[in-house]
Structures are given as structure tokens and as C-alpha cells.
Amino acid sequence: MSLASVFNIAGTGMSAQTTRLNTVASNIANAETVSSSIDKTYRARHPVFATMFQNAQGNGDSGSLFSDSDSSGAGVQVSGVVEDQSNLEARYEPSSPAANKDGYVYYPNVNVVEEMADMISASRSFQTNADIMNTAKTMMQKVLTLGQ
């Protein structure tokens, strides 16, 4: 793996965690929205990540720090965002303006505690990728000073 590719890998990780933070924010923002029908009720959303791999080139430069010839991972990509299909919460609230003819309103399947834990995890993963970039930058600066 090339030392230069570390920036791309960490960058894709930061981008993926940003998507994760955005979906968590959307879920928390809609946690208490109500609807009169199951079809119109907000459902929690979760990003799906996939590993990106480099193609094996086999050109014999695998010993170099700046070589791209191995088949290691090349980062992470967001394959998509899926809706959680777990059951929605139906509450009997006949006085609610959003109640259906039977007096029920439907709340999203968002667990705020789980979303907060996911937010903390995404934030720490983002920070870890930023630290990796800083370490790689320091290492590259050291390589440039070897000839002095």
C-alpha cells in the first residue's frame, strides 16, 4: 500500500462517517413526528457501507512506500441508505390533529438512545480518520527531510 493512498482511504472513511452523522441527525430530528397512516410515517434510516479494493497490478514495486501495486483495501463507500423495516409505534391519541378515524397516531421506529450512541461512534470514527491523516502527513514530512 502506498503511503500516499492513506489520505484517500482516510478521506473515504471521513466521508462515510459524515453520511452516517447526517442520517443520525435526520433520525433524531424526526423521532417525535406523527402521522395518521403507516405509509406516511417516517422510518429510521441507516447507511450501508462497502469496502473498496485496489486492483492487484503485480508490477513488482510492492516494496516501495509509494507503490500502488498491492490488493489491499482502498477505502469505504456508502452503498446506499436503507429504511428500517421494524414495526412503528401506534398510540391511541384521539385528541391529536394527526389521529386517524380510529384515534391512533403512528410514531417512527427511531430509538433516540441508539441514535445517540451511533452519533458518538460516528464522531469518534471521524476523529480517528482525521488523526490517521495527520500521522501520515507527519510521516511524509519526515521522508522529505531524510536527505538533509
Categorize the overall geometry. elongated
Helix content: 25-40%
Largest sheet: 2 strands, antiparallel
Main sheet: strand order? 1-2
Beta-strand proportion: 15-25%
Summarize the structure.
The chain is α+β, with helices and mostly antiparallel strands.
Your description of this structure?
The protein is an alpha+beta fold and 148 residues long. It has a domain at 5-31 and 44-82 and 110-144. 39% of the residues lie in helices and 19% in strands. It contains two helices and four strands; from the N terminus they run H-E-E-E-E-H. It has a two-stranded antiparallel ribbon with strand order 1-2. A two-stranded antiparallel sheet has the order 3-4. The longest helix is centred in the C-terminal third of the chain and has 33 residues, at 112-144. The two termini are 26 Å apart. The model is unreliable at 56-65 (pLDDT under 50).
Which helices and strands occur, and which strands form pairs?
Layout: H1 5-29, E1 45-53, E2 73-83, E3 89-92, E4 104-107, H2 112-144
Antiparallel strand pairs: 1-2, 3-4
Helix pairs in contact: 1-2
Sum up the structure in keywords.
about 150 residues; alpha+beta; two-stranded antiparallel sheet; two-stranded antiparallel ribbon; 4 strands; about 40% helix; elongated
